[in-house]
Amino acid sequence: MRKVLLFLLVSFCLQSNAQNVSEYRGEKDKVHNLVHTKLKVDFNFDKQTMNGEAWITAKPHFYATDRIVLDAKAMKIHKVEMDGKALNYNYNDFEITINLPKSYERDEQFTLYIKYTAQPENVKQKGSKAITSAKGLYFINPKGIDNTKPTQIWTQGETEASSCWFPTIDSPNQKTSQEIYITVPKKYVTLSNGKLENQKNNPDGTRTDYWNFTQKHAPYLFFMGIGEYEIVKDSYKNIPVDYYVEKKYAPYAKEIFGGTPEMLEFFSKITGVEYPWNKYAQIVGRDYVSGAMENTTAVIHGEQAYQTPGELIDGNSHENTIAHEAFHHWFGDLVTTESWSNLALNESFANYSEYLWQEYKYGKDYADAHMFKDVEAYKNGQNFDKHLVRFYYDDKEDMFDAVSYNKGGAILHMLRSYLGDKAFYEGLNKYLTDYKYKAAEVHQLRLVFEEITGKDLNWFFNQWFFGNGHPTLEISYDYNELRKTVTVNVFQTQTQQFQFPLTIDVFEGSKATRHKVFVNRKEASFTLPYTRQPDFVQINADGVLLCNVNENKVLSDYIFQLGNAKSYMHKREALLEVAKKQDDNKAFRAMSNALNDSFYLIRKLALENINLINKNSKRQVIEKIKVMANNDPKTLVQAAAVETLGKLTEPELKPIFEKSLESKSYAVIGKALVALYYVDKALAVQKSKALPDEVKKIIATPLTRIYLEENDEEELTFIAGNVISGMYLSQDKNTQRLYKKAYDKITKGNNSEAIQNLVNDIVIKGKQYKQYGFNNVGIELMRQMVKTQKSANKANETKNIAIIQDAMSRLLK
Fold first, then answer.
1. What are the pLDDT digits (tens) for 530-567?
2. 492 DSSP β-pair partners
3. CA nearest 660: which of 640, 691, 638?
4. Which residues pair with residue 182 across a beta bridge?
5. How confident is the model at residue 128 (pLDDT cuts 50, 70, 90)?
6. CB under 8 Å to 618, separation ≥6 — which residues?
7. Closest residue by Cα to residue 61 from 25, 27, 24
8. Among residues 283, 551, 638, 699, which one has the fewest Cβ atoms lying within 10 Å of its Cβ?
9. Cα(562)–Cα(801) distance, rounded to whole angstroms?
10. Which residue intervals define the domain Peptidase M1 membrane alanine aminopeptidase in the entry (predicted)?
11. How is the beta sheet containing 472-480 ordered, strand by strand?
12. Would you call 504 helix, strand, or coil by DSSP?
């Protein structure tokens, strides 16, 4: 599962992250083991229900038993039989307890037949921040009323929602083979796990597709996807790799997903375990409840995967998610966490695969920048007190957070660094080989690495997997010029004591000597030699250790660090500090030099922070930025350069902005329109209105800025559809302020169409993020809109209030 991180404002009334420690949550007891699951299903689109028949083959795990309990949520149960004979059962809307005809011994198999109706709209279990709903089976536009989206059906099983559409033992420590007969109208294609064995046309205009999956996997990985898709075919070796996309995006499917075969090859190579399944398909689902899901051989992605060439030229924003789900086919699908408490065995590895892929495909700078972003997201959340492996939590959904994902990936990076690549990858191979088609816990991972390396790793796993937090280091230095040594003093300020390897670079000029030390006390000192007085000492020089570092640095230190540090993290830190002191000539020169950095994100960051106010004395730098605006190899850097030049509001720069409007990059076009607006308003407005609607949607924020400044009433209807996302889902405070201004303008105005678009979006977001309390926020927003309309308007007041009140009624349903 690749979560979607939502950066919501405090007014969202988010659920508390506090842990309820009243109940221990370990592995679910295995009373029975699933053996095989056979399903036959068809759908009532109008009622949003599914007619199902299930044949569940199981056996007692150890103890003899004469009853079985299956998870089955919000279903109508019509029949429960064995060998054609009815069985007695009790059903409480969550579990069905079936009395077997006799007591079955260990490993004695039996097959149950259950006829049922799945009613996903009646499911009562809640979702999480990562998976926003948990009803298992989803009908998208089932009656075809909404002409903005297709009719689709898809499923989402994680964590325990597969039991919303078929009876099963819904636990990650179960493994079963499966076969599914899916009957749908002929116009739809279907996707499920395993191989499409055959298709049969029926006299009533439907078709039945038979999907067969002969290997074993957990019930939460079962999948069905149904809709009008084009199937774009690809392959890895002799394994089909297919992309199920809406017709509109078929021309771009290989640009979006085409790296998949190389990912499968790369992950097979580093694990030493060949891709273990018979196909790899990916489908895009509308209104999907998360980022993506690793259903075995049948991955589903949210519609954010869809991108056009104008976006893809800036970089495939979904590529890390594609890698994440691919690696899950080893870590999660082949070997599965035995319990949600051990979720790190799934998600930490999938998270780290994003780093591994970036490092392999694009280089260490790209990977380090990605890791930095992940670590910052972990640090900036309410995560310090959470263990990676947690046996006490309020709800299983709470496990899907920045600890299980981001921190877990960083911990694996530290483990790889400590053990070395050879031992790390041999350990992965042994773990995957020993536990394939089984469930595992973190202790088993530790024992594998100990067997491979001969090292005791209890200390590492106890503090990182079974502990919480990370070290905060206070650093000081003592120089001895007679002995030519520098003593680095490390003091841990957090409550608990960590032990860890630490890299220290001692710079003599631009030459760095790297020292590797091991910190095993709260206070530790390391004396390091030098030839001449060091210019700089870099702590955590390789950026591997998950920690905070506090030390007293002056401007000259940061200038040196910016020019000489080896890792992205340290360059970024230095650049942001140097940017604060650009009145100093050396600082400004360092910022200017950063524009030449080999890594594009440093160039982009320098452009975003360089100060050109005294432009007459900085003409040489401006000339450099003008070249970058049209010629930097990275379009995102070009966009940043255009934006920086735009702040100068100089008419002589108009040709650069006009040329940028010819770019294939939507990011460049958006920045160029705003820059052009401040030197030629009429031309910028003319160019913006000539854009295709799809491009306008993608660059909505810069266009909103222009249209608001123009006081363009005609474009308020366009702006209105983006207001809620801009106010509540954006990380950028300037964007939030921009859309708040747009919200105020629309709510005070007479534009009924804009008000209609705004409240429609509030209703959609209110329902989509109901578990965050945004339905209540939406109601309050609309109440305020009614008050504003009553106080601010005469024309259209009655009509506008009726529109708002109708939307409130829809959201309250």
1. 999 999 999 999 999 999 999 999 999 999 999 999 99
2. 473
3. 638
4. 41, 209
5. low
6. 588, 612
7. 27
8. 551
9. 56
10. 260-464
11. 523-529, 485-492, 472-480, 548-550
12. strand
Last residue of a domain, one of 635, 668, 698: 698
Number of domains in the chain: 4
Residues 693 and 716 both lie in one domain:
no
> Quick one: angle between helices 442-453 and 408-419, nearest 10?
10
User: Domain range holding 346?
Assistant: 335-464
**Contact criterion met (CB below 8 Å) for 290 and 130:** yes
Measured distance CA(287)–CA(302) in Å, rounded = 7
Q: Are residues 744 and 635 in the same domain?
A: no
- My answer on whether 388 and 417 are in the same domain is yes
Q: Are 718 and 688 members of one domain? A: no
Q: For residue 522, give the nearest of 550, 495, 552, 549 by alpha carbon.
A: 495
- Of residues 150 and 4, the one with the higher pLDDT is 150
Q: What was the pLDDT predicted at 771?
A: 64
Q: What is the pLDDT of residues 613-667, one digit of tens each?
A: 877 678 999 999 999 999 999 999 999 999 999 999 999 999 999 999 999 999 9
What digits encode the pLDDT tens for the residues 4-41? 544 343 334 444 344 445 589 999 999 999 999 999 99
What is the model's pLDDT at position 276?
Answer: 98
Of 698, 721, 737, the last residue of a domain is 698
Instruction: Give residue for tokens 């075969």.
Output: 261
* pLDDT for 572: 98
Q: What angle, 0 to 180 degrees and rounded to 10, lies between the N-to-C axes of helices 421-434 and 442-453?
A: 130
Arithmetic mean of pLDDT, 77-97: 98
Q: What is the DSSP letter of 455?
A: -
φ/ψ of 526, rounded to 5, equals: -135, 125
pLDDT of residue 14: 41
- Indicate if 521 and 457 belong to the same structural domain: no
- Could you give the percent of the chain with pLDDT greater than 70? 96
- Calpha distance 384→366 (Å, rounded): 26
Q: Is residue 82 part of a domain?
A: no
Whether 293 maps to a domain, the answer reads no
285 assigned to some structural domain: no
382 is a domain residue? yes
- If you ran DSSP here, which 8-state letter would residue 248 be given? G
The beta strand positions in 126-175, using DSSP E, are 137-140, 152-155
- CATH assignment at residue 688: 1.25.10
DSSP summary character for residue 580: G
